[in-house]
Amino acid sequence: MSKQCDICGKKPQIGNHVSHAHNLNKRRFNPNIHKMKILDNGTVRHANVCTRCLRSGRVTKVV
User: Fold this and answer.
1) Tens digit of each residue's pLDDT (9 = 90 or more) over 1-52
2) What pTM did the predictor assign?
3) 3-state SS of 30-45?
């Protein structure tokens, strides 16, 4: 499953784990992606959608 939102294009970002001694190790911040059926221009399709798009109302879920 891809780690990118089909609606807004949000992808993983790179950052650092920072320990108490300030040792830095690379890490990834993955977006919260869910695969679901959405209504797109009157047609139903599967899409990978981040929770930010769901909460903001950019996507209409199919029940």
Assistant:
1) 679 999 999 999 999 999 999 999 999 999 999 999 999 889 999 999 999 9
2) 0.80
3) CCCEEEEEEEECCEEE
**Residue owning tokens 């089909």:** 6
Tokens of 20: 């108490």
User: Which amino acid, residue 57?
Assistant: G
Pick the CATH number of 1-63 from 3.40.50.1970, 2.30.170.40, 3.40.190.10, 3.40.30.10: 2.30.170.40
* Alpha carbon distances (Å) from 22 to 13, 15, 18, 27, 40: 20, 14, 5, 15, 47
